[in-house]
Amino acid sequence: MNTTNLVLAMQRGCMQTFRQPQLVLPASSSMVRSCLLSTQPVPAARLPCRVKVSAGKRYAWCACGHSKKQPFCDGAHRKEAPSILPLRFTPEKDGTVLLCACKQTKNAPYCDGSHFKVIFRDLVKSHGNSRNADVIGPSGSFTYRTENFVVLSS
Fold first, then answer.
1. What are 29-56's pLDDT values in tens digits?
2. How far apart are the first and last CA of the chain?
3. Which residue intervals define the domain Iron-binding zinc finger CDGSH type in the entry (predicted)?
């Protein structure tokens, strides 16, 4: 790795340490992207997971979003997001709960409706500079205005 790439990687906070020098990668956009994934959770899904839980049983909720066994942890964070650990929880009673899959909840591991913000943000991004967009949803169509960030039902 040349000095310029090393300085660039350190400035971005994405320096990765390897045991063998030949494995050190140059500072590229893919390296920066993988470093960003390791510090920020990624939405595993836009809607919460409905799960039956048992009282007294210990569960590990995936907080990073990389697990293939959503909403539970499969250890993927060790490679994909080492700075984000799963949340361990034990339900007090048997029942069906909604566990967050967008990873933006303020009441982890339970869904608090934050996925609506994630869905809306994705809609706004997908339409760029357009002020109005019609979207067909499961309950019919609705219009949203991006300049006011207001959802209008029809």
1. 444 444 454 689 999 999 999 999 999 9
2. 57
3. 46-83, 84-121
Q: For residue 107, give every residue at least 6 positions away whose Cβ sits within 8 Å of its Cβ, in sequence order, or none.
A: 100
Amino acid letter, residue 99: L
pTM above 0.70, yes or no: no
Helix (H) / strand (E) containing 120: helix 115-126
Structure tokens given for 12: 């971005």
Q: Please state the length of the chain.
A: 154
Residue 18 tokens, joined: 């390897």
Tokens for 143?
Answer: 């219009």
In tens, the pLDDT along 88-141 reads 999 999 999 999 999 999 999 999 999 998 888 888 888 765 555 554 444 444
Tokens 């320096």 sit on residue: 15
Q: How far apart are CA 76 and CA 99, in angstroms?
A: 18
Query: How far, in Å, CA of 87 to CA of 105, rounded?
Result: 12
